[in-house]
Amino acid sequence: MATYLVIGASSGIGKATAKILALEGHSIIGTYHKTEPEKIENVRYFPLDVIQDTLNFDFVPEQIDGLIYCPGSINLLPFKRIQPKDFLSDYNLQVVGAIKSIQANLNRLKSASNPSIIVFSTVAVQQGFNFHTQVSSSKGAIEGLVRSLAAELSPTIRVNAVAPSITQTPLAKKLLSNSSKIEANAQRHPLKKIGTAKDIAHLVAFLVSEKASWITGQVVNVDGGISTLKI
Ligand SMILES: NC(=O)c1ccc[n+]([C@@H]2O[C@H](COP(=O)([O-])OP(=O)(O)OC[C@H]3O[C@@H](n4cnc5c(N)ncnc54)[C@H](OP(=O)(O)O)[C@@H]3O)[C@@H](O)[C@H]2O)c1
Fold first, then answer.
1. 26 within domain boundaries
2. Model confidence pLDDT, tens digit, residues 201-216
3. Residue 23 CA to ligand 1 centre (angstroms)
4. Which of 13, 34, 168 to mutate to test ligand 1, by most ligand atoms within 8 A of the CB atom?
5. How far is CA 95 from the centre of its chain?
6. What is the CATH number of the domain that holds 37?
7. Could you tell me if the CB of 150 is within 6 A of ligand 1?
8. N or C: which end of the chain has fewer CB within 10 A?
């Protein structure tokens, strides 16, 4: 059985991923920031704020099989209303936080038999949507990071990104705050529904597993078909 570090395992997709991997019998080191974590068998929780300059990962064992980095934001605003500092704080959370976390744990990953790293992009990087400039700027950087880092860490550590469309989690709460917003978002997707945290987490669990041992440098969409289908 494997040991996975899930950064941001207290909410949404990270929590669903921790649950699925724990149910498979793996050992999960999960982190939380502001949300009091739920007790889940096989999941041990530790506090972490990835915005801090120096991150302390002393609670992580010497060897891990995977690192899954979940912190992110969805701030949708017209471009002219977003301050440069807002772009920077998004970049800090979504990109620099991932870089610091990966750098601090590379040695723990290196000695595992099928080690991998998962980060999150968004469907809004490859498809242009109104009011998505802030999130797509930093997620675009994540997609660049994934490809370059996957090359640099091959053949030892696989690196992949998952790019969801709108998914029912606390992060997307404002966009899905009533049934008409949920229905309008569902109707934009060829599969006529929004995502669930489990929809995304099942792909993450696959990507870190032995079954995905020939997959690296990929950005995989889970998005009800919205990125590729016009119907
Ligand atoms: N939901 C969507 O519609 C959607 C769509 C496209 C992409 N994504 C991406 O998918 C990923 C997961 O999103 P989600 O919807 O599951 O988000 P979520 O429900 O907000 O969960 C994010 C997790 O990251 C943690 N986190 C946030 N800020 C942190 C910080 N400063 N330091 C350490 N941990 C921090 C949170 O901890 P606490 O809760 O304990 O503070 C939480 O466990 C994100 O990268 C997001 O951009 C989501």
1. yes
2. 999 999 999 999 999 9
3. 21
4. 13
5. 11
6. 3.40.50.720
7. no
8. C
